[in-house]
């Protein structure tokens, strides 16, 4: 089945490097805490978890059920994830994470193919399509843009047309993204200091124009 949907990718910054210095049970405790914080945010706005990839989470909006606001919901979730991660620093420290935990979030939209893969006794739902690859590459590109949340520009505009009031820090035209052959337009949403331009209705409690302390 093919649908128009949004793919959202979340990843912990520097996870592999830090995790390599921690006991395995501590790593599992941190992942459980992180997923317990992020997954409810995704699900509250109708997102579906496609898969966990270590510290990475791949979610979709509009893929599992029809929605008139799937892009707006995904953008709201991206902003909420940044805020809730910041608010959960004490829990992450208690779980064993050294220092402050940071995440990168990215989203892209377009046609997805939904299906089930695997063998008879090991099946799982998955999505395939250009937005999956693009969202993953954009998430990694956060580092180069000094951002913690970005979106493909067309996805950002779609979300705005669906009613969310978030203004991007910048629309970067013809941006070069590592490991992508063609340049893309991207919306830079939140920088590494937590700077944004607008809050949005029914979103997290934002202090001024920052969502990171």
Keywords for this entry:
8 strands; 213 residues; disordered C terminus; 6 helices; alpha+beta; Alpha-Beta Plaits
Which class do the helix and strand fractions yield? alpha+beta
The CATH topology is given as Alpha-Beta Plaits
Q: How many DSSP helices?
A: 6
The CATH architecture category equals 2-Layer Sandwich
Number of strands: 8
Q: What's the gyration radius in Å?
A: 17 Å
Give the amount of beta strand, in percent.
Answer: 25-35%
**Helicity level, as a percent range?**
25-40%
Nearest-integer average pLDDT: 89
CA-CA gap between termini: 43 Å
Number of domains: 1
Write a brief caption for the model.
With 213 residues, the protein is α+β, with helices and mostly antiparallel strands. The protein is built from six helices and eight strands. It has one domain (2-191): 2-Layer Sandwich (Alpha-Beta Plaits), CATH 3.30.70.
